[in-house]
């Protein structure tokens, strides 16, 4: 059987980490694409030289030509620019929208059968725009946010309860950003809901609220520490988990930014919800009953995503 092909659009910090992880796990041969000349080629060469030490045979190549992503099974998109001081949200939207247009066309022309995972921010708007520009089916274009957000939530909860992260199953809904909705009712430690652990005196509502707040600001906390960039290890490993679920037809239920139509009261919007990921991509959105507070918070998140889409349509008339 031919090896799978993984195309990484954007060979920056996340792109390079994705390439390393994909090679170590031998998900397939890896093509790093970037508009910057030399960067994808240099990173591919450097990473190939890990092969003899780490024992992987995955072939890594770097390119500035979309033709080289031809036939990719999975495409992971990190191309774009991060928000810089003095840049408004609309400035960032405008720049990254243009990037999504170029990337969407590249995918449409060279890898139309791929499963596409978008990481570029602002995530919920960018994954929507990428789907629009690429014209791929909705089930084949998803955004990575919830896996990362729930990993952050789980990390902080494991520290709070002094338990292994392996026993924490965290649940986060909504858009990727300040309005994300960590749901404590469905967040468990070895099957025990966090709300029950609070009742059992293992923590307090105030401390859990603090953790929820820290999770919402999890990306910003890392930006403030790094100063010159944003998180890349955990975002990359989150997207790799999604790629593995697709390639292995694992039917994992992962929180992802997916196109939701007819569930959660939505009539066609990309937002973070639990979804079954298998060989058909985003196979089924799982609608869970929400209590009034989670419903209200989810609506705030949905409204924030909708507002971003309005701004995108104003910037690029072809999306209207
Ligand atoms: N086509 C391809 N690559 C592009 C394009 C484009 N049109 N425009 C920019 N790039 C490349 C840059 O050259 C750079 O190598 O995208 C890469 C982005 O890498 P970094 O700046 O290192 O950013 P990274 O930390 O990897 O994050 C990427 O993910 O989490 C989000 O907010 C983050 O949107 C950002 C993205």
From TrEMBL:
Record-annotated Lactate/malate dehydrogenase N-terminal domain positions: 5-143
List of residues binding NAD(+): 10-15, 34, 96, 119-121
Protein name: Malate dehydrogenase
UniProt function note: Catalyzes the reversible oxidation of malate to oxaloacetate.
InterPro entries: L-lactate/malate_DH (IPR001557), Lactate/malate_DH_C (IPR022383), Lactate/malate_DH_N (IPR001236), Lactate_DH/Glyco_Ohase_4_C (IPR015955), Malate_DH_type3 (IPR011275), NAD(P)-bd_dom_sf (IPR036291)
Extent of the signal sequence: none
Organism: Sphingomonas telluris
Binding residues annotated for substrate, in chain numbering: 83, 89, 121, 152
Keywords from the UniProt entry: NAD, Oxidoreductase, Tricarboxylic acid cycle
NCBIfam families, per database record: MalateDH_bact, PRK06223.1
Enzyme class: oxidoreductase
Family affiliation: Belongs to the LDH/MDH superfamily. MDH type 3 family.
């Amino acid at each position: 059987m031919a090896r799978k092909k993984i195309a990484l659009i954007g060979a920056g910090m996340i792109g390079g980490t994705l390439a390393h992880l994909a090679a170590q796990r031998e998900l397939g041969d890896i093509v790093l694409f970037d508009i910057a000349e030399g960067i994808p080629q240099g990173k591919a060469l450097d990473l190939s030289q890990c092969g003899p030490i780490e024992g992987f045979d995955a072939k890594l190549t770097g390119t500035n030509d979309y033709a080289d992503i031809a036939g990719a099974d999975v495409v992971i998109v990190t191309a774009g620019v991060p928000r810089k001081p003095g840049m408004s949200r609309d400035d960032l939207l405008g720049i990254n929208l243009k990037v999504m247009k170029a990337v969407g066309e590249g995918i449409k022309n060279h890898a139309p059968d791929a499963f596409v995972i978008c990481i570029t921010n602002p995530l919920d708007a960018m994954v929507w725009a990428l789907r629009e520009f690429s014209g791929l089916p909705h089930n084949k274009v998803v955004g990575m946010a919830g896996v990362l957000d729930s990993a952050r939530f789980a990390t902080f909860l494991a520290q709070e309860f002094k338990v292994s992260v392996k026993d924490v199953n965290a649940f986060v809904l909504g858009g990727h950003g300040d309005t994300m909705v960590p749901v404590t009712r469905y967040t468990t430690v070895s099957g025990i809901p966090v709300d029950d652990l609070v009742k059992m005196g293992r923590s307090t509502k105030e401390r859990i609220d603090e953790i929820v707040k820290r999770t919402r600001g999890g990306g910003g906390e890392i930006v403030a520490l790094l100063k010159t960039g944003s998180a890349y290890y955990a975002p990359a490993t989150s997207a790799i988990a999604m790629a593995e679920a697709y390639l292995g037809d694992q039917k994992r239920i992962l929180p992802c930014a997916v196109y939701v139509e007819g569930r959660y009261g939505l009539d066609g919007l990309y937002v973070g919800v639990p979804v079954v990921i298998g060989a058909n991509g985003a196979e089924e959105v799982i609608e869970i009953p929400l209590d009034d507070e989670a419903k209200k918070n989810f609506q705030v998140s949905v409204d924030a995503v909708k507002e971003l889409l309005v701004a995108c349509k104003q910037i690029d008339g072809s999306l209207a």
